[in-house]
Design brief:
Two copies of one chain form a homodimer.
Chain A: E1 15-20, E2 25-30, E3 33-37, E4 42-48, H1 52-60, E5 62-68, H2 74-82, E6 96-98, E7 104-106, E8 110-123, E9 127-139, H3 149-154, E10 184-187, E11 193-195, E12 229-231
Antiparallel strand pairs in A: 1-2, 1-5, 3-4, 4-9, 5-8, 6-7, 8-9, 10-11, 10-12
Chain lengths: 233, 233
């Protein structure tokens, strides 16, 4: 028996994994990051083969990991999680630096950064596992708490992109039965669903209808305005 | 520049990874666990090559992951984290079951379990990365919170075994300067250090001397009695 709800009991942080150089660079939101050895310190990151960043890591042989802070802006979660670097420059307007290997390292909304030189590329099917050796690391903001995947899903009600290692079709998860009196509205930018039965706590109380939301309310995940929402049937 | 404090900003859960069968079985505490693909669902676990469990996973071709709950007993943390299955039967007296592949699966103090069939073994130097495909998964205790590595380190003041991927020599970390009036005592079983300046919050207030600890106080990590502690110079 497979219960996909059990897979949600694996804990992760939330990171932006970046690669490239000053001329060409990209990054993506990644939760599948872990240290794999201590001496020397090596880290593994999972990257969908379709991600624009995958080819850049293979070509340049280095990547960086920016551990995101708990109150990371919707702008960063939206750009790095749901948009492609083939279409936009995700780093535009954000703080970044370049590491010893020349790799871009996101600094905005970041607790700590780790720079790695690629040592092994593992083919795991839909994803590559890139294993890199630690080149440099630095605390950027020691007073900020780390953003965990659990917090992102349960408190920010954030969605998981289809390219993520942990994507699960919602139909496979146990449904929470909400009152049928309330409607749901979907953000067409990132897929977030505003459920009137649940509201957008703590600011927007459970039971607040979509039309009663303030005009300046925006999608808590990607920052899209109310006009980007459609009503679900 | 490498700041090893930055490496502590990677988030993990805490798991017991087990392998074997009814006759021969073992497991170890592991924080380096992550999902690496969604379709099919595959998981990676890191295991020191010296761990007794490493050889058992290679031989039997399967492993299980038990996601530990926040209030996991010191007995489980001590046995699976700091003792070797070459010396003791770690499962003795604990709840367990056997999966479809015959692998032992720890159920005590467990939130959810995942059973995997080994697909790839990656040599990462000191550690193997075992990649397994999901065979079965189940929620064991949905009301329990998950134990995170961050909570284990910062609130339970737990130590990291030398075989772990995230082991860092304390000398590499920024020291917190405590008042020199207070002494420190080390648990000879697991390495936990009772620092009089910090106490053992919330029960034992900061500033409580070792001799003023209740006689029935035990090591918060492994449960060893006061008599197993030695004073540090």
């Amino acid at each position: 028996m497979i219960d996909f709800n059990a897979l949600l009991k694996i804990s992760y942080g939330m990171y932006v994994v970046s690669s490239g150089n000053k001329d060409k660079k990209n990054g993506f939101i990644c939760n599948s990051v872990m240290q794999v050895t201590a001496e020397p310190a090596q880290f593994a990151v999972c990257c969908n083969k379709n991600n624009f960043t995958a080819g850049i890591i293979e070509k340049t042989g280095s990547f960086s990991i920016s551990a995101l802070q708990k109150d990371t802006s919707p702008e960063i979660l939206s750009k790095f999680g749901f948009k492609s670097g083939r279409d936009i420059d995700k780093f535009k307007g954000l703080d970044l630096k370049y590491g010893d290997t020349g790799v871009p390292i996101l600094l905005s909304d970041t607790v700590a950064v780790i720079e790695c030189k690629l040592k092994q590329t593992i083919d795991a099917g839909t994803h590559f596992i890139f294993i890199g050796e630690l080149i440099s690391s630095e605390i950027i903001n020691d007073s900020a708490e780390m953003l965990t995947y659990d917090y992102y899903r349960n408190f920010k009600k954030g969605f998981t992109p289809k390219n993520a290692t942990t994507f699960v079709d919602k139909s496979k998860l146990t449904q929470v039965i909400a009152s049928e009196v309330f409607q749901k509205y979907k953000c067409t930018v990132c897929g977030y669903i505003y459920d009137e039965a649940k509201g957008d706590e703590p600011e927007i109380k459970a039971g607040t209808t979509f039309k009663d939301l303030p005009d300046d309310w925006v999608c808590p995940v990607c920052g899209a305005p109310k006009s980007d929402f459609i009503k679900l049937q």
